[in-house]
Specification:
This protein is mainly β and 127 residues long. 15% of the residues lie in helices and 39% in strands. The chain has one domain: Protein of unknown function DUF192 (Jelly Rolls).
């Protein structure tokens, strides 16, 4: 499933050490279905995606709806199974372990940064 990257706030607070990126129709459709949890430090970025459903899910998650520039449009804490959420105008959805967003202060309007570990490896190798 997709690439693994690191997600952090502009201030440097890490939200996910290993963020999967789901870009294809099949990756987005599958999402977190069939999993028992999102491991601590993990997450899933669905793009493009402005709404999600929790039908057939086994666990609750925290959700960030973001614009193309990764500015937070909406924050949803503890979205439980058999619920849905969306945000008009959002480009993508970031799904994180339940409770992650209560430990870190992320609010509407905050900007996030995705760090690609492959880009780091390339720049390190060229030195």
């Amino acid at each position: 499933m997709g690439r693994l990257v690191r997600l952090r706030t502009i201030e440097g607070v890490v939200l996910a050490e290993s963020l999967e990126i789901a870009e294809t129709f099949l990756e987005r459709t599958r999402g977190l279905l069939g999993r028992n949890s999102i491991e601590e430090g993990g997450g899933l970025y669905l793009r493009p995606c402005s709404s999600i459903h929790m039908f057939f899910m086994r666990f609750a998650i925290d959700v960030l709806f973001v614009a193309r520039d990764l500015r937070v449009c909406r924050v949803v804490h503890r979205l439980r199974p058999w619920r849905f959420a969306g945000c008009v105008g959002a480009y993508g959805t970031i799904e994180l372990p339940e409770g992650c967003l209560s430990r870190v202060s992320v609010q509407r309007g905050d900007r996030l940064v995705i760090e690609d570990p492959l880009a780091c490896e390339v720049s390190d190798a060229s030195r």
